[in-house]
Amino acid sequence: MSPLPEPNLSAGARLPSLRARVVSHVLLPLALTWLLGTAVTVGVAYYFAQTAFDRALLDDAYALASRVKLQPQSKLPDATQELVLELSDNEMSTVLFDRSEAIFFAVLRPDGSVLAGHPGLHAPQPQGKAQSRFAEISYQGKNLRSVAVVLAQPAPFEVVVAQTLGSRNDLLRSVLLYSVGPQVLLLLLLAVWLRRVIGHELWPLAQLQQSINQRDALDLTPVSVSASSSDIEQLGRATNALLARVSHSMQAQREFSGNVAHELRTPLAGIRALAEYGLAQPAPAVWREQLQRITVSEARASRLVEQLLALALSEEAQAEVSTDVVALDVIVQETVLRYLPRADAAGVDLGVQGLEQALSQNFRVQGNAALIEGILGNLIDNALRYGRAPEGRISTVTVELAVSEGVVTLSVVDNGPGLTPEQSQHLMQRGVRGQATQQLGQGAGLGLAIVTKFAQVMGARFELGVIAEGVGLRATVRFRSTI
Fold first, then answer.
1. Whole-number pLDDT of residue 468
2. Is the pLDDT at 433 greater than 60, yes or no?
3. Looking at the structure, do residues 468 and 419 belong to the same domain, yes or no?
4. Do 396 and 415 touch, CB atoms closer than 8 A?
5. Number of domains within the chain
6. According to the per-residue pLDDT averaged within each range, which of 223-237, 339-353, 433-447, 448-462 is highest?
7. Residue 182, Cβ neighbours under 10 Å: how many?
């Protein structure tokens, strides 16, 4: 597997902040919407302004057309009548008055000749049934807005009125200035306000980042998050949940290390004793016998390590160790026989009660053989170490098997000094050492904690109780029967 690429810190340093990204993502659509709205507003305003100007231009054209009359060329009764514009110069100035714009006009006959007005002024004629038509034209080097009106009474003629575009352009610039300018200012004020508000809302994230950056790698306590929104609150919860899982994983690793050290001490010491005894004997047959015993002890230690690994993984992954139907009486018999030499050497009477009922009682339980061996071995080891009777009495350790109402009970009973209920509860915690342990300088305070954990993994229940009047200790594990 190829190694993971190293993070590009220089590229990450150039990345914009979350506040800047949020502000940009908010302002960009807002600016586009504002731009589109402004364009529509300006377009609508300019359209209606153009309509107002065009209406005034059309009114001027009709005012001129109203003064076009038919007059005879002479006073004779049969004299030919011609079109004339009945407006004096003063009246013309009044009709076509505009203080800021230049106005041009022309009254044209049907043949295109000029009846009155500016020669050469022409505009596109109306099409179809329309009487007027607006257009942009050029006259005397000037861009003009024109209207052409075609009338049939009193005789066919055309009126063209054109006006320069200065006022129209000034109006468009004013609309743009007074509509776009304030909105740009409002957009800038909104950007500043959004930046402040978003920065305030994201401040808990900065606090979370600062808290994590300043924290020691081994400090897995929950992080304090002052949430201002549900999203930041959920992020804080997720971060603390991750820290809790990491803490649980590290605790499981520490417990596994302690379990291995505690559980392997006895088999490794036994292997060393077997090896030393074999090396001290000259006979090859004794060597072979000791090597066989070492092989058996090593296999037992290997199985124990495998189960400890499975236990550690089950704690870390919240998964159960695989269990099966096992014969509890067989495990008890094999384990007790293995501890008999040690009990004889220590002067302790180690015995079993209940095996004689194996034919009539069902001692098959749902569990794990190696874990049950670990439980029973720990309980017998504790009883042999710390369950000694007072001076003048014989120390006894008894393993009891019983079945009652679908529950199989495995107990290890000694006649030692016993424990109070408070001491029993205290000693089942990991790393806690009793007074006898401290006096003897043995043990790491893991035995009963391992028994508790093994029983919990298999779904069994572990209890400690006093025999009678504070003398002796009964350690009991209750299994579900497979009946």
1. 64
2. no
3. yes
4. yes
5. 3
6. 339-353
7. 10
The DSSP H or E segment spanning 164 is strand 157-164
Residues 231 and 195 grouped into a single domain: no
CA-to-CA distance for 418 and 471, rounded, in angstroms?
A: 5
Mean pLDDT across the stretch 168-183? 81
Identify the residue whose tokens are 């000259």: 282
In sequence order, what DSSP letters do the residues of 70-125 get, joined into one string?
EEESSSSTTPPEEEEE---HHHHHHHT--SSS-EEEEEE-TTS-EEEE-TT---PP
35 pLDDT higher than 70: yes
CA-to-CA distance for 377 and 454, rounded, in angstroms? Answer: 12
Range with the lowest mean pLDDT among 2-16, 35-49, 348-362? Answer: 2-16
Residue with tokens 């305003």: 45
The rounded mean pLDDT for the chain is: 79
Which residue among 177, 201, 225 closes a domain? Answer: 201
CA torsion sign for 367, 371, 373, 378 is: negative
Q: Which parts of 314-460 are beta strand (E)? A: 324-327, 348-353, 364-367, 395-404, 407-414
Q: Are residues 233 and 120 in the same domain?
A: no
The pLDDT value recorded for residue 312 is 63
Residue 136 token pair: 């942009």
Stretch 424-447: mean pLDDT = 45
Count Cβ neighbours within 10 Å for each residue of 123-137 and write b for 16 or more, e otherwise: beebeeeeebbbeeb
Q: Which domain holds residue 249?
A: 217-257
pLDDT tens per residue across span 389-398: 888 788 999 9
Residue 104: CB partners within 8 Å, gap ≥ 6? 117, 118, 121, 139, 144, 161, 162, 163
Residues with Cβ < 8 Å from 254, sequence gap 6 or more? none
Classify the C-alpha dihedral 251-252-258-261 as positive or negative.
negative
The answer to whether the beta carbons of residues 160 and 123 sit under 8 Å apart is: yes
**Sheet with strand 132-139: strands edge to edge:** 114-117, 103-108, 157-164, 142-151, 132-139
